[in-house]
Specification:
- Its EC number is 2.5.1.18.
- It catalyses: RX + glutathione = an S-substituted glutathione + a halide anion + H(+).
- Keywords: Transferase.
- This is glutathione transferase.
- It is an enzyme of class 2 (transferase).
- By secondary structure, the protein is an alpha+beta fold.
- The protein folds into two domains: 73 residues, Glutaredoxin, CATH 3.40.30.10; 133 residues, Glutathione S-transferase Yfyf (Class Pi), Chain A, domain 2 (Up-down Bundle).
- 59% of the residues lie in helices and 8% in strands.
- It contains ten helices and four strands.
- A four-stranded mixed sheet has the order 2-1-3-4, covered by helices on one side.
- The relative contact order is 0.12.
- The structure holds glutathione.
- The site of glutathione has 11 residues, from helix 3.
């Protein structure tokens, strides 16, 4: 690995790695991508992320960083072109708030909808809908969370638009109500249709297969 190089260690189906890929692509940064086998973790991953042993990992000038939101901030501070975080401290804090809200509230509720059955699943699905409605309020009257341009929160949370729709199809429960969440739904579409964002997205069928397999693992664990 050249000392000034940028390397992303990822896994094609990881939304957390996708966030980092999106940020690097939106900023036009040259990088090397290394695909990780999560069933047989490489010495490289264990060396660079000994704490969590997860992807993504970013290696820049020989120094490694883990945790996708931390990596996004590093990228934004290191390469100033096409800024992701707003300059205004309050707006910047809000961008971090919504990104954490998705990781801490939305993702666990979607996982519960995916892994539970019966009443527990219904409750989890209701929680997903409430959380998505709350997330929608963060959009305010803007096109993207970043305003007229894709920003930090968009990059951190926009993958939900694809994932939640796959989960809906697999478990047969509606989570994004297109009527009561029209603004959120339109934002998901708009974001996912952006050429750079779209270019990095794995094919839907491949993601569907991957999520079906994930569903099998989750449901077998919870029974
Ligand atoms: N909080 C982490 C989550 C990363 C994560 O969960 N990565 C998954 C792939 S989607 C992983 O590497 N899993 C391997 C494992 O848990 O052993 C981040 O934001 O980067």
């Amino acid at each position: 690995m050249a000392s000034d190089s940028v390397t992303l260690i990822g896994f094609w189906g990881s939304p957390f790695a996708l966030r980092v890929k999106w940020a690097l692509e939106l900023k036009g940064i040259q990088y090397q991508y290394v695909e990780e086998d999560l069933t047989n973790k490489s010495a490289l991953l264990l060396q660079y992320n000994p704490v969590y042993k997860k992807v993504p990992v970013l290696v820049h000038q020989g120094k490694s960083l883990a945790e996708s939101l931390v990596i996004l901030e590093y990228i934004d501070e290191t390469w100033k072109q096409n800024p992701l975080l707003p300059l205004d401290p309050y707006e910047k804090a809000k961008a971090r708030f919504w990104s954490r809200f998705v990781d801490e509230k939305c993702v666990p509720a979607v996982i519960s909808t995916f892994s539970k059955g019966g009443e527990e699943q219904k409750k989890a699905a209701e929680e997903v809908r409430e959380n998505l409605k709350t997330l929608e309020s963060g959009l305010e009257e803007k096109r993207y969370f970043g305003g007229e341009k894709i920003g930090f929160t968009d990059v951190a949370t926009g993958w939900l638009g694809c994932w939640v729709r796959l989960v809906e199809e697999i478990v047969g429960i509606n989570l994004i109500d297109t009527k009561s969440m029209a603004k959120l739904n339109a934002w998901f579409d708009d974001f996912l249709e952006h050429p750079i964002i779209k270019e990095c997205m794995p094919p839907r069928e491949k993601l569907m297969e991957h999520n079906k397999a994930f569903y099998k693992v989750l449901t077998s664990l919870s029974t």
